[in-house]
Amino acid sequence: MQDFVDQAFKNGVQLSDKGNCDFCGADFPRGIFDCVNYCNTIIENLDLKNPKHLIFRFLIVDSHALQHPEIHGTWSNHFHLTRMHLILEKKKNWTHKTSPLLSHYLNNYKTLKPHEYLHPPAPLKRGQINTNDFAIVKTAAACMPLIKRWAEEVYMAWKDHHCKIAPIAEGFLKRADHR
Fold this sequence. Notes:
The protein has one domain (4-178). It is mostly helical. Helix content is 55%, strand content 0%.
């Protein structure tokens, strides 16, 4: 797996290690580098053995990935936006077992539409909440509502692609092997 610096380079993006994050605006001294590292500390606020907390882990990953698509692979947007749609709109209870099933489903979808690309909203226009907003939040009880609002903001920032994602999600839900 490539690290995010390599992926950004592959995407033609030069990353800065000074100032705010270029993609979400988080106020960190080392920009995207601190933003990525801090994202992991948000996850540490959750009890991942608690099934009710697990869904928030996926929302953190999806929110951060969709706010920073320049540091991820081309098809990452499909995966994270579809998973968000399934969690937020379809109320799908997500587990670690479900992610590879969605990935497999998207691999098949890609063969039908190999050139489809979800163009991201402009940097700094992918939701106002970012990793920096979690700096003062230290408990799961305080963290979870903020994670949900963050996910909803990011999801809505990508609303131009909901028409492409909704049929993908419906097709995935109709498959018997996702349950």
